[in-house]
Design a protein that fits this description.
This protein is an all-alpha fold. It has one domain. Helices cover about 75% and strands about 0% of the residues. The chain has helices at about 1-30, 45-50, 60-80, 85-105, 110-120, 125-130. Helix 1 packs parallel to helix 4, helix 3 packs antiparallel against helix 4 and helix 3 (about 60-80) crosses helix 6. The longest helix has about 30 residues, at about 1-30. The mean pLDDT is about 95.
Amino acid sequence: MKHIFRNIAAVVLGLFLGGAANMALIMVSGYIIPPPDGADVTTMEGLQASMHLFTPINFLFPFLAHAFGTLAGAYIAAKIAGSKKRMFALIIGGFYLIGGIANILMLPSPMWYSILDISVCYIPMAWLGWKLAGGKK
């Protein structure tokens, strides 16, 4: 019974804290790498309309946010889970992968970015989070 509560907490906290890490990086990204002139990144509609103005450097922080958010969430889940730590880390990666696919479908990003984001940011980062947490099954 104890493992059930720990495992549920692992998923909930992994998703919440991984999402917080993701959002923190997205929030500071505009101060470090400003959006292109004329781009409205405050609304989804504005972002969709201005994606064609983005250069590769503008995709750096979204990539880092997706990768680090997944890594942090998976690490936390693997640390908290009472059993099957790798599975719970990968569950976090799976949730974020679904979010990444939804993001790609909603925002017209370049194909190179979509492929890079999907192939590197989610399942590999979840596995790395598990390894960094001790790598125990």
